[in-house]
Amino acid sequence: MERITMRQAKDYVGQTVQIGAWVTNKRSSGKIAFLQLRDGDCYFQGVVLKADVSEEVFTLCKNLQQESSVVVTGVIQEDTRSKLGYEMLVQSVELVGESHDYPITPKEHGTDFLMDHRHLWLRSKKQHAIMTVRNEIIRATYEFFNKEGFLKVDPPILTGSAPEGTTELFHTKYFDRDAFLSQSGQLYMEAGAMAFGKVFSFGPTFRAEKSKTRRHLIEFWMIEPEMAFMHQDESLEIQEQYVAFLVRNVLDNCDIALDILERDREVLEKYTQLPFPRISYDDAIELLNANGFDDITWGEDFGSPHETFIANHFDKPVFIMNYPKGIKPFYMPLAEGRDDVVVCADLIAPEGYGEIIGGSEREVDYAQLEENIKNFGLDTADLQWYLDLRKYGSVYHSGFGLGLERTVTWICGTEHIREAIPFPRLLNRIYP
Ligand code: ATP
Ligand code: MG
Fold this sequence. Notes:
This protein is elongated. The longest helix is centred in the first third of the chain and has 23 residues, at 125-147. It has 2 domains: 6-97, CATH 2.40.50.140; 118-420, BirA Bifunctional Protein, domain 2. It is α+β, with helices and mostly antiparallel strands. Helices cover 31% and strands 26% of the residues. The strands form 3 sheets. An 8-stranded mixed sheet has the order 7-11-12-17-16-15-14-13. It has helices at 55-63, 111-116, 118-121, 125-147, 186-196, 232-253, 255-261, 265-270, 281-290, 304-314, 366-375, 384-388, 404-412; strands at residues 2-3, 16-28, 32-38, 43-49, 69-78, 86-97, 151-152, 158-159, 171-174, 177-181, 198-206, 219-228, 278-280, 318-321, 344-349, 354-361, 397-403. The structure holds adenosine-5'-triphosphate and magnesium ion. Adenosine-5'-triphosphate binds at residues 207, 209, 215-217, 220, 222, 354-358, 401-403, 405-406.
């Protein structure tokens, strides 16, 4: 007999098969029991008729506890009432693992309780839906960059110096030397772009952020493309095509998950329409000041109410371009004809989700870059390898970083970033 998962059900209608599953719920009366089952991928119903099964099996079904694991054997049949479209008419049930007093019950639980039980919370429907969307975004990311001719390059996670300062870095011992966990692979990706043209990375990054917000994780995953022979305007086009591609693929491939998350598809459809609006930092400050935000002046970074206002104003993801040099890192070049703003852009998601991409063109002139490094109080010796890239065939190039969990949270329309990663690391949490 074939062991299948419910996803394959359409190819097995009328056939007897086996499925390994967990019991999420059950209901029974004298002659019939309904098992709500989860095979890890799909949620489905098993119908047990007392007349069809042994006395022993029917009694077992009536006594199954939440999250017991079973192997059910039965016939796949169509079920027009469920979204899945199929159910199983159960012939026999083998109990694999008992479960008693499963802590997460259908009643409401507090966030701390759920976070303490994250290893079990992952089994619930909403979490499954979010992880399905996350998986689709990961899959579509590889598809997008492969079709665009990018080579995946993996930057190191352990680094020997701290190019953007140590305040947000995790420190560790590296034998008898110091090392830090990577907060971005960008500088290495620039070396990658000079070697391979168009490259992207996809890996974990670590920031010892003391801020406790619903958008910040301590450990998160970032996609960092870097493109040689590319100016910022062309990079923005790649960024918007990439983001629209992610939303399109979630819409096309995550139907059940979007239902569970009750995400409005028409809202998501809007985010697949290009181009995304662009506004300069200068104009964004004016727009804010004209709309009653008198708590921000030119030169300051946006807070989340500012970002939320701007993105909602356009009702789409929006690029804010060319920030003051004082609030951006050392490697960004000055905009033409300006000595106060650099060529960069952040992509701000609407609905209050904040920045999902940070990107810029990169300084390519050796002398200028060296001066920037010194002006930022950094050590040129630590960055000699990075300066070298400007010595041997330096070309204009641009890149960006997209935060995976920010993007998942936004596309899912969920409240807090902690649910967008299987085991979130937060300011006060490293368990489980
Ligand atoms: P923010 O101002 O929101 O802290 P940032 O300017 O520090 O963001 P970048 O350094 O540009 O962000 O990082 C690139 C992307 O990585 C961001 O656009 C965001 O999507 C994501 N990101 C940054 N910090 C975090 C974090 N602590 N948790 C999750 N994602 C993050
Ligand atoms: Mg930050």
